[in-house]
UniProtKB/TrEMBL annotation:
Organism for this UniProt entry: Salegentibacter holothuriorum
Active site per UniProt: 190
Protein name stated in the entry: 3-methyl-2-oxobutanoate hydroxymethyltransferase
The entry's keywords: Cytoplasm, Magnesium, Metal-binding, Methyltransferase, Pantothenate biosynthesis, Transferase
Quaternary structure annotation from Swiss-Prot or TrEMBL: Homodecamer; pentamer of dimers.
Lineage: Bacteria, Pseudomonadati, Bacteroidota, Flavobacteriia, Flavobacteriales
Amino acid sequence: MSVAKKEYKRVTTKSLVDMKKNGENIAMLTAYDYSMAKIVDGAGIDVILVGDSASNVMAGHETTLPITLDQMIYHATSVVRAINRALVVVDLPFGSYQSDPKEALRSAIRIMKESGGHAVKLEGGKEIKESLKRILHAGIPVMGHLGLTPQSIYKFGTYTVRAKEEAEAEKLKSDALLLERLGCFAIVLEKVPAKLAKEVAESISIPVIGIGAGNGVDGQVLVVHDMLGMTHEFNPRFLRRYADLHTEMTKAFEGYRDDVKSKSFPSDDEQY
């Protein structure tokens, strides 16, 4: 059964909770720069994540670990300038919150004050409880992130599906309840079995946004470069490509190159 879609002039953390209550799925994409964010926002995407995946798709690193807090603030500031409607969530990068709750709060405050972002996202559950409490008590909205947490990739040793075993699944469910109880407004679940993700989404009142977590959750998120087909070598099962920009852009660049080499660009009509 289709659900009537409410129009939101500005999406807020409350809007997302209302969407879940009303049965309206949440559409979320990443963006890292002004031009892309403006298009994403104009398309009516509810949430823009300034993800630490910028480390991969913007800077070419193998993992998300190298990106710094200053770099995240730079990307977030660029995105915020483009936004009229979407909620902007900014990842706290690796090393900025895990070990010291006071440092976690300082990092979150810097993002909110310097970038103008609307919320922060942290990876982990019980392990980062004290950092979460500090940030939330300061009035900063927090989106959680459970399942495959890329900042812990060297601990996991692989990007394979998480929580397939009972013990890890039980911990994930417990962590989701903890994040809700602490005051997080939403949770990203990454690369976990669809049945488990659905169970988690049904067990808590805050939205669960999935990436590789099936269709039983309250919304979906993808990396914009992946869904546009720019990162053509990345082919996980959960990824649906909505364009093939790698091919289209390559054709455009080759066409420009050929026109310049043959001196057909610029033409008489393209000169002053």
